[in-house]
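Support case: calcium ion complex. Customer-provided input:
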Amino acid sequence: MNDILVIEDEKDMRFILSDSLGAEGYRVHTASEGREGLKMALTREFDLILLDIMLPDLNGIEVCKLIRAQDSKIPILMLTAKGEEIDKVVGLEVGADDYITKPFGMRELLARIKAAIRRSSQTPVEIVTECVIAGMTVDFNKSEMTQGRRKKKLTRYENDLLRFLAVHRGSVVSRNRIAEEVWGREASPSSRTVDNYIARLRSKIEPTPAEPQHILTVHGEGYKLV
Ligand code: CA
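Agent response - structure generated as follows:
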């Protein structure tokens, strides 16, 4: 059974959400204020948070930001009202996974909730199995790259690192995030280790490793696969 935290100040909306989600088999927990919701989010485990943007004490954007500072994984679905278009964008920027505009149909909301919970329970490893970089097809399940008849093997961390970059293709990922997601929080490799593995990947992928065209360094930020 999945636990959902609903942070919503409007009583009727809270009631409808509790009722409908409860009927779908979710265990629903509610908070009517931002601070209260934040406290719950940070002290208990939930599978998803439904977060209203307009809250009386601490708005949804702030709540989202503060939750994300502690928890990078919990899916957060924002509830926005018509006319809060800008908040919607800010919401995604501060780390919400999705948003839904009021008034919404319950079926749509349920579909979004389901999708968000499913996405969060998958690791990136399960999502991307193959990609094409520099004319080479990378098969992450086999840890190998193929170009025509030529094959190159990838070591475990090279493979995991490349897959992580492929999942986030087009966006910058920081060294810290790479270290945490690829090596795991316990292993906590140094950023030097990350750099070394980037260099190894470049030597396998880039025609001119010293002038990378695919695995780019974004100064002061991290790396980006394009
Ligand atoms: Ca509200």
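Residues 9-10, 52, 54-55 surround calcium ion (CB under 6 Å).

Case will auto-close in a few days if no follow-up is received.
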